[in-house]
Amino acid sequence: MEKVILRNEMPSDYRVVEEMTREAFWNNHVPGCDEHYLIHMMRNCHSFIKELDFVAEIDGKVVGNIVYAKSKIMGDKSKYHDVITFGSVSVLPEYQGKGIGAMLI
Questions:
Q1: Where in this chain does the record put each N-acetyltransferase domain (predicted)?
Q2: Which of 11, 42, 71, 91 could anchor a disulfide with 85, C-beta 3.0 to 4.6 Å?
Q3: What DSSP string runs through the chain?
Q4: Which value, to the nearest 10 degrees, does the dihedral of the CA atoms of residues 21, 23, 29, 35 take?
């Protein structure tokens, strides 16, 4: 496999990442998908962690993406714990199964 470069997503990547994410998830679990729209909306959310928004690139082509957000988990006695969650992890279908998702995580 070609060399995979991991780097932060830039605004110029936004449309490419959304299209790549749509292709990665299209008709996987239900007809269509909405993961690409979720990423679009997350970028404007206060819990979005821009510094942990990464793309995987091969030969200048974006082939994968991962995003992270701040979250809370409610534990015993309604005590909240601050955590970081990730998702979605998107990899173009023709690059899936090659370890790119694991690199992003």
A1: 4-105
A2: 71
A3: -PPEEEEE--GGGHHHHHHHHHHHHTTSSSSS--HHHHHHHHTTSTTB-GGG-EEEEETTEEEEEEEEEEEEEE-GGG-EEEEEEEEEEEE-GGGTTSSHHHHH-
A4: 30
- CA distances 2 to 31, 47, 55, 75, 100, Å, are 32, 34, 15, 44, 11
How far is Cα 73 from Cα 62, in angstroms, rounded to an integer?
Answer: 32
pLDDT at 88: 85
Residue with more model confidence, 31 or 67 = 67
Predicted structure pTM score: 0.85
Q: How far apart are CA 92 and CA 17, in angstroms?
A: 10
